[in-house]
User: Which sequence fits this backbone?
């Protein structure tokens, strides 16, 4: 697998740390169910999935990568900071 | 048809014409007491124990492909009961005892080989952890012993005892652990269940789970609808998709774990041996191939194949541990789909839907659990109470945070196991 970092270009998978599904973080005061959903529960699709990857051995950017879990094909990459995952303050 | 030495002799002398298929190929009936989704090791074992221990024989196992075509046929065949935490400890103890009597119970040769497992340690911290885990295993009633460096050298002289970075200080051994012929385990349980009246239905993908007023009433399949009083999931890496048919979201991510086999070599590795540096585990099959693996690839995957970085890591670790085999050629490799929970331990529990049961989250340890899982899952389905050896595999531990079983101590969070 090779991931095209928006800042560094196409790089080997080994430069990246995998975090998992890219989910919108609940607000700090959200209830237990919202945090349970965020921390534990996963749609776990066999197909396209939005994920967080960290360019650990490159520019240190967090990326939102859309990847097909059935084929490993990378479909889209954008900076996580521009993906609106932070939720409410 | 019972297997015996006499039968083998007689068939050998009469042209082997008397062997029959090991199970029927029935058409699905319109209704069953219990429908099990997934004809792998756990599903087949569950059907077997439902029939044998609980007398529930109006059971169907629905398999979308062929029996035993998933992870039960894609693992490194290791059987052991060397867990540390309460919850896991008594469960795997129960499972190992069933392994020990399985072949006689099933009248089926599963090539169960209690050759022993040796977990090597390379520093003081690992040794302390091994001693502590060994004590936990002994307290559970199973066997464990600490081997000195010299004792490890006697048993496995081919290991790298010259490594400065990862010196072998000794090992934690469980003699009752070993390996079994993985396919035969599935076939043995399939035959045993079939003989007791269970319908094993292959090429029958479940496409929907019917729920009315909070209670499961049946399933939709590629071969038509089937009514069921109880429906039991045993779909391993595909658990997420199956549960979604009932509107459930599980605390599971599916990841790929690769395994490898070398060309056939003369006997050298007598035990299962694990290397505590790169999580490598090796054994030698009866055909002579080195069977080994290491970590997950560490990304979600349903591809049943991995990527080259983990192949390279595994080979590096193998050669570091056993330099004598550095010229062995790799014969083949494959990937299995692992249903990973946040804490690395499984779920065997009721679901929020009446009559729908969960058996999932086996991470990369489902094979050794096969008989135990079938036994306790059958108990749960039949009695609606957890088996005494499986009281802690609760679904709600992730929501509440109470009773998490993080065997590795890395944190109960996805992607850390």
Assistant:
């Amino acid at each position: 697998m090779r991931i095209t970092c928006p800042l560094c270009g196409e790089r080997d998978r080994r430069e990246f740390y995998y975090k998992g599904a890219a989910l919108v973080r609940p607000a700090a005061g959200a209830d237990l169910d919202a945090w349970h959903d965020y921390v534990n529960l996963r749609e776990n699709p066999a197909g396209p999935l939005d994920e967080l990857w960290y360019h650990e051995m490159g520019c240190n950017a967090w990326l939102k990568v859309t990847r097909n879990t059935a084929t490993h094909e990378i479909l889209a990459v954008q900076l996580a900071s521009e993906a609106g995952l932070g939720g409410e303050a | 048809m019972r297997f015996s030495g006499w039968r083998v002799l007689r068939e050998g002398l009469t042209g082997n014409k008397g062997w029959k298929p090991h199970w029927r190929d029935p058409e699905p009936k319109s209704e069953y007491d219990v429908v099990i989704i997934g004809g792998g090791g756990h599903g087949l074992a569950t059907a077997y124990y439902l029939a044998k221990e609980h007398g529930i024989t109006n059971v169907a196992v629905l398999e979308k492909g062929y029996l035993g075509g998933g992870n039960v046929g894609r693992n490194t065949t290791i059987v052991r009961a060397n867990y540390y935490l309460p919850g896991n400890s008594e469960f795997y103890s129960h499972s190992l005892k069933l392994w020990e009597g399985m072949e006689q119970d099933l009248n089926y040769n599963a090539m169960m080989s209690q050759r022993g497992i040796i977990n090597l340690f390379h520093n003081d911290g690992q040794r302390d952890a091994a001693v502590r885990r060994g004590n936990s295993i002994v307290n559970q009633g199973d066997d464990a012993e600490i081997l000195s460096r010299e004792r490890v050298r006697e048993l496995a002289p081919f290991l790298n005892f010259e490594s400065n970075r990862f010196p072998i200080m000794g090992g934690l051994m469980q003699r009752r652990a070993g390996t079994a012929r993985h396919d035969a385990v599935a076939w043995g349980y399939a035959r045993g269940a079939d003989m007791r009246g269970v319908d094993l239905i292959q090429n029958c993908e479940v496409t929907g789970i019917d729920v009315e007023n909070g209670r499961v009433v049946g399933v939709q399949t590629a071969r038509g609808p089937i009514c069921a009083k109880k429906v039991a999931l045993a779909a391993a890496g595909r658990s997420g998709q199956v549960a979604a048919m009932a509107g459930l979201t599980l605390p599971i991510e599916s990841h790929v774990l690769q395994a490898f086999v070398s060309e056939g070599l003369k006997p050298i590795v007598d035990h299962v041996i694990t290397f505590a540096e790169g999580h490598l585990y090796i054994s030698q099959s009866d055909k002579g191939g080195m069977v080994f693996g290491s970590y997950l690839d560490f990304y979600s995957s349903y591809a049943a194949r991995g990527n080259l970085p983990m192949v390279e890591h595994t080979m590096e670790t193998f050669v570091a541990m056993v330099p004598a085999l550095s010229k062995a050629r790799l014969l083949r490799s494959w990937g299995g789909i692992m249903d990973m929970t946040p804490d690395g331990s499984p779920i065997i529990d009721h679901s929020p839907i009446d009559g729908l049961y969960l058996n999932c989250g086996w991470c990369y340890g489902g094979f050794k659990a096969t008989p135990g899982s079938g036994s306790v899952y059958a108990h749960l389905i039949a009695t609606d109470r957890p088996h005494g050896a499986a009281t802690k595999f609760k679904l709600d531990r992730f929501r509440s945070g109470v009773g998490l079983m993080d065997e590795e101590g890395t944190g109960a969070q996805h992607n850390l196991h």
In short: Chain B has a mean pLDDT of 96. Chain B touches chain A through 24 residues (CB under 8 Å). Residues 88-106 of chain B form the longest helix (19 residues). The longest strand of chain B covers residues 253-264.
